[in-house]
Amino acid sequence: MEHVMQNESSSAPLMYRLERPVYSTRDLETQLLHRKAKQPRTTRQRIKKQISCSAGKGKTILFSFLPILTWLPSYPVRQYLFGDVVSGLSTGVMQLPQGLAYALLAAVPPVYGLYTSFYPVLLYTFFGTSKHTSIGTFAVISLMIGGVAVREAPDSMFSVSASNGTNETDAVLDTEARDARRVEVAVILTCLVGLIQLALGFLRFGFVTIYLTEPLVRGFTTAAAAHVFISQLKYLLGIRTPRFRGPLSVIKSLVAVLIGIPTTNVTAVIIGLLCIVFLFMIKTINDRFKDKLPVPIPGEIIVVIISTGISYGLQISDKYEVDIVGKIPTGLLPPAVPDFSLLPNLFTDAIAIAVVSFSVSISLAKIFALKHGYSVDGNQELIALGMCNFVSSFFHCFTITSSMSRSLVQESTGGKTQIAGFLASLMVLLVVVAIGFVFQPLPQTVLAAIVMVNLLGMFKQLRDIPGLWRMSRIELAIWVVSFIASVLLGLDFGLLVAVGFAILTVIYRTQSPKKIILGEIPNTGLYCDVDEYAEASECTGIKIFHSNTSIYFANSDLYINALKKKDLEQGVTEMILSGSAPQLDDEQTNGKAVEPLGDSDPEDTHNLHKPLLQENINIHSIILDFSAVNFIDSVGAKAIKSVIKEYAEVDVQIVLAGCNGPLLADLRRLQFFEGTVTLDLLFPSIHDAVLHCQHRAT
């Protein structure tokens, strides 16, 4: 019977008194617990339930697929509209220059960055669940798209021979045909990315991001920032270099830039550096006075407008040979079906881009949702991104995701709902339809400056390293491997290596768990590490072994060896008879189950490896604390059963404590409770097991 007692003084601790019999698992199942009667459903019934339709279920599905239907009817116009308008205009002002700039990263003409800043943003208003993330172009995704576009449509494919007056032939690059082909590659890749994200969303695969841990993503995006920065150097310096791909591409690009420095366009460098200094100053002012400024100063659009005006007035393209954006068609292009003949070569790239795009977006969405007290649906976010990418690919857009810099502006300027993003997209539409041609004289070095300054936030992630060094060396290793692999091998192979390494760290953790001996804190029934706490003392004649890992084929050997090593340290030792080398018994060797041979005498197959009691120490029981064990396989079960029998030969009983329900079901399915190993050796708690062992020894 349990009694809760509270002292009249409010400062006294809450106390409870508990007196009950010692229960084994068999006692619990026969005396206390009675399973509820359940009517198992047939496969036909399950399928029927899934495909059945009703008005209520149809409404739920519709509202889930189109979240706008849940919040727009109750939109509080007076409280939210002004903030959404200001936020939408502020974000739209950033969308314009970033769309132009990131199109260069995607290896497509700048106007396609404007298309990508309109269609997907508009669609996300209807399908997205995050109220504060700004969907559109993003440096990392644009660079990954550009890498694929350059691979599938390299300059060498579009070199044509042009004869001059002296009958000599020179190779001339057909940039119009090259750009058209790269747009086709970017569009079909985006279509495939959208299809993959839609499939993952409908199959409820939103959990895939658990394999992209935060250190992995931050190391990867920092490496991507390095790729982006180096790729923009040629535009900043006004030089022409080939675009490299594959392993060591970042090194090759840097070397090419260094070799091309003698051909630097001084005018382009001056303009680019002035823009970088100005943008950095504006960014610093916005950060320092963000609480006092009603809206952030739109430094990027200011730079674009001023640079375009100066370029047009001074004719710097003609006089100083500075590369400019060039022709920007007025209006929207008609929709077109992507070229599906390119699909076979792009599937692997599409998977990587789809996962990275979703990972970045859901990470930002969760940050803002936690801050503002609402929830985001990971599966619906996959569907939203998939719809944005798939539908927009028919309108000549490339892959999108959430932008950190624009999302921060959208949130800090008072954005409350997806209406802010909707208004930002309308602002981009206005520019595309009416005044896009105005930006034709814009120098490309200005776009490079915008990109470089926006990378500052990503490079600040290098500050993670000291913190991870103090908190978790394994997570630091994931960050470093993700960064180095992505820098040297490229973003696609680098991501694959990073994910593989992260999975290996999980395996390593199961191979190197903490192994401890527990002791009781007097008169509490609580048990702690005897090496860690002075108050914890071992129960006479009883060893309580704890290891925070599951037991399966890869670590069952290690678990048994750790148990015997702890016994050796704490009082139980080993003796090898007949000069045999120490090893486990006939049923478990090197993590593999081995059946006894024929009718051989067990004594001949044991190698006579038996634990014995150290002189003057009476160890009669060992308790295996299974409270941290989540699962066990057949090899692990045979290993535990084998060691129970092995110690029983010298009259040392091993019992198990703290098994959870699923683990107990696993043991039953593996036929663990047969012969001498019964449910009487299982106990619901360590204290039950200790009392049982003490009673047995008396």
TrEMBL record:
How is this protein annotated for GO cellular component?
Answer: membrane
Say yes or no: keyword Transmembrane helix present. yes
Disordered as annotated region, ranges: 582-601
Q: How does it sit in the membrane?
A: Multi-pass membrane protein
Name the keywords, alphabetized.
Membrane, Transmembrane, Transmembrane helix
Q: What is its main location?
A: membrane
Q: Which residues cross the membrane?
A: 100-127, 133-150, 185-212, 254-281, 293-314, 350-370, 382-404, 419-439, 446-462, 477-508
Q: Name one GO molecular function term.
A: secondary active sulfate transmembrane transporter activity
Q: Which residues form the STAS domain?
A: 532-693
Instruction: Give the subcellular location.
Output: Membrane
* Keyword Transmembrane helix recorded: yes
PROSITE patterns tied to this protein? SLC26A (PS01130), STAS (PS50801)
User: What NCBIfam families does the entry give?
Assistant: sulP (TIGR00815)
By what name is this protein known? Answer: Prestin-like
Q: Which organism is it from?
A: Scleropages formosus
